Amino acid sequence: MYGNTNAGLAADTSTTAAPGIAARHQETMDQLNRTVAQAEDLLRALGNESGEAIDAMRTRVSSTLRDAKERLSSGAGQARQFANTTMSQADAYVHANPWRAVAIGAGVGVLLAMMMTSRRRHSAEGEGSADY
């Protein structure tokens, strides 16, 4: 159960990261993939057209596209490595300090509950005063 910290990381990041972070990551990846697809479409549209300006554009787009794909690949690998390292460190900490981890989790839960209760009170007070 705790031994394999790499299981499922590449397939599903939503279970290993906060939902907001996973959603933003997915949105960014989707946008980058759309950009790459549009650049590839542009290269296909240029097709066999020739001319000095078109050849220069084709070269620039091809170079930019290649660089973008390399950065995407490198970034994904770095993110996966960072997540694996972070998960391993958290797992080691929890195993070394189980009661401290429980206390920290409970404390964070209490703080979140207090913040949510405070927001509800303020929003309920604001709704009542808007009627005059």
Description:
This protein has 132 residues and is mainly alpha-helical. The protein folds into two domains: 7-94; 97-132. 80% of the residues lie in helices and 0% in strands. It contains three helices and no strands. Helix 1 runs antiparallel to helix 2 (52-96) and helix 2 packs across helix 3.
In short:
By secondary structure, this protein is an all-alpha fold. Helices cover 80% and strands 0% of the residues. The chain contains 3 helices and no strands.
Keywords:
single chain; 132 residues; mainly alpha; elongated
Total of helices: 3
Uncertain segments: 1-17
Q: Summarize the helix and strand pattern as letters.
A: HHH
Return the domain count. 2
Kindly estimate the percentage of residues that lie in beta strands according to DSSP: under 5%
Structural category: mainly alpha
